[in-house]
Amino acid sequence: MRMDLGILHGFIVDGSGNPWYRADIGISGKKIAKIGRINRKDCERTIEAKGLYVCPGFIDIHTHSDVMAILFKGCDSTLRQGVTTHLTGNCGQGIAPLREHNIELAKTYWGEWAGRLGETNWRTFEEYLRVLGKGGLGHNMATLLGHGAVRTAVLGARRDAPSKGELRLMKSLVSESMEAGAFGMSTGLVYPPGCFATTEEIIELCKVVAKYDGMYASHIRGERETIAEAIREAILIGERAGVRVQISHNCPKWGACGRTAETLGLVAEARERGLDVTIDNDVHTDLAPELSGALPQYLGELPLEERVKHLESKENRRRIKKEIVDDELPAFGPSGLLKHGHFDRIFLLHASKQKNLVGKTVQQVADERGADPFETYFDLIVEEKDGIVAIFDYISGEDVKALMRDPNMMFSSDCSTWSIEGALNDPPPYFPCAFGEYPGIFERYVRDDPVLTIQDAVRRMTSFPAQKIGLWDRGLLRPGMKADIAVIDLARMKDRATDLWPHTYPLENYPHRYPEGVPYVIVNGKVAVDSGRQTKTLAGEVLKHRWP
After folding, report:
1. Per residue in 524-537, is it b (16+ CB within 10 Å) or e — as a string?
2. CA 50: distance to chain centroid?
3. Average of pLDDT values for 201-214?
4. How many angstroms from the chain centroid is the CA of residue 24?
5. What does the pLDDT average to over 154-180?
6. Which of the 8 DSSP states describes residue 340?
7. Domain range summary for the chain, segments of one domain joined by +
8. Helix (H) or strand (E) holding 118
9. Which CATH number is associated with domain 58-287+395-428+454-472?
10. Is residue 239 a contact partner of residue 274, using CB atoms and an 8 Å limit?
11. What whole-number distance in Å separates Cα of residue 119 and Cα of residue 98?
């Protein structure tokens, strides 16, 4: 049998969780044609993999590449890690469907780079998928429907519950998007507009998702003090809607550190009752939003100038501080550092006006000024016209390891695909997860400080997420499966985006560099990374959910 590509003499880690074995892999077209002994003469091309591990391409179940995969078609930063599929549209932040009267509002939720898209030439989910795939992709993209997109399309910025007629319209948009190929629906219940939705609203929409055998992925309603209640809500939604549940980046944040036994116990208990509930997590313990991003959600809906002016008022500041401390509407994880007064864990990364601030903590700035740190926090936002970004160190590394050991956890990155090329790197955003998440796991937690065996780590990156998403032709190395393959050199594995691991502050520019130790990546049978260099091949596809 003549084959297009042979990968010879490697240690095969097939994604099932079994130990490696030695064999060759032959590829014809987009599929694995043979596993066993292969004569190199039967192959158009061969890759010598002696001493290397041959794995299924990594499937990242929680990403935010909705916009960036359009801007960076090569998917450079993630492809070079060995990633061959992203599930995007997470945290309720999808960018379709759109309705004309709410398009500009919807764009405010997409992130600061959405303006680079130019004309938004789609309205339906199907049209978005067509735009996403136009011209090819560096790796595959599967997409969730964002609840926030549905809510914004119908309700705009309103915070109340939909009427019966509005809920019917929301359901019709969910149905239309599922039929177009969405793999399920996500929510972001600490962000606007998702934070304004009731549990009942989500259950009703998830009933539609369940009809199409889709999944429900949730950035839950509380990640800190209320994390247990938030997990119970996600489980309740799954139980009442009859939908399988994925709890996103489920490590407890500051305010709930050390509660992994409790939170993981809730998931285990749900599974004992027959509910399909699983979790994912990345391995980074910090995040770098704008300072205003950790404030109550409604402030993010205000135009920039109005938001800054709002924060100039001492009366407004008193009210906002009380809202944060009382957790009236729990905001996302990093805000826990504000609630508990840990301004010494907030490191200033970018300041548009006062460059001398970079590398200092908010606490240090407050001490230098002889001021209250909470007031200093507000002052910095006003002084910098909301152009100030900080690294919030808000997760326990021990909790991350505890999640890794749990059988119901799979890996994710919580990143957008990126590239070192282009104007979007001036200044460079803080995205180490976009450049080194998977190599970092192998380097730190498989090789240097073992928490997992290589076969278990690979399983959590491949067959496990494929099973959850419903990608039945990917995630395992078997004849007939799609030829998405990562060849890794464990001895040389290096996450070069985190050379400062563990973090050393101050930081002016966090290095964004591609990893070492991933010499070959195959996407749909095509060599996309060849001897460590990215090819010009755009073999990735837009994957669409299909149901019986």
Report:
1. bbbbbbeebebbeb
2. 33
3. 98
4. 33
5. 97
6. T
7. 58-287+395-428+454-472, 291-393
8. none
9. 3.20.20.140
10. no
11. 13
3-class DSSP state of 523: strand
Query: Which amino acid, 503?
Result: H
* Whether the Cβ atoms of residue 363 and residue 372 lie closer than 8 Å to each other: no
Mean pLDDT of the chain: 94
Q: What is the biggest distance separating any 2 CA atoms in the chain, rounded to whole angstroms? A: 78
- Give CA–CA dist 116/251, Å, rounded: 32
Burial class (CB in 10 A: 0-12, 13-18, 19+), 154: buried
Residue bearing tokens 């190199």: 40
Q: Are 380 and 311 spatial neighbours (Cβ–Cβ below 8 Å)?
A: no
Phi, psi values for residue 538, rounded to 5°: -115, 80
In 3D space, the residue among 537, 547, 545, 546 whose CA is nearest the CA of residue 84 turns out to be: 537
Alpha-carbon span 442 to 439, nearest angstrom: 5
By CB atoms closer than 10 A (0-12, 13-18, 19+), residue 135 is: exposed
CB 45 within 8 A of CB 13: no
Residue type, 427: P
- pLDDT tens digits, one per residue of 233-286: 999 999 999 999 999 999 999 999 999 999 999 999 999 999 999 999 999 999
pTM: 0.96
Q: Are the C-beta atoms of residues 87 and 143 closer than 8 Å to each other? A: yes
The half-sphere exposure of 110 on its side-chain side, counting CA atoms within 13 A, is: 21
CA–CA separation, 110 and 472 (whole Å): 30
Q: What phi and psi, each to the nearest 5 degrees, are found at residue 532?
A: 85, 0
Tokens linked to 321: 């501080």
List CB contacts of 388: < 8 A, sequence separation 6 or more.
Answer: 290, 291, 348, 350, 351, 352, 357, 380, 381
CA–CA distance, 215 with 441 (Å, rounded to integer)? 26
Summary count for the chain: helices (H), strands (E): 18, 21
Sign of CA dihedral 325, 253, 218, 200: negative
8 Å CB contact between 40 and 80: no
The full DSSP string for 21-32 is EEEEEEEETTEE
Measured from the Cβ of residue 478, the count of other Cβ atoms closer than 10 Å reads 14
DSSP 123: -
Cα 319–322–325 angle (5° rounding)? 155
Q: E strand or H helix at 314, and its extent?
A: helix 314-326
Q: How far apart are CA 363 and CA 528, in angstroms?
A: 46
pLDDT at 497 (0 to 100): 85
Per the CB < 8 A criterion, the answer to whether 69 and 85 are in contact is no
Nearest-CA neighbor of 250 among 412, 438, 440, 65? 412
Q: In the structure encoding, which two tokens stand for residue 446, read together?
A: 């498989």
Of residues 110 and 480, more confidently modeled: 480
pLDDT of residue 548: 79
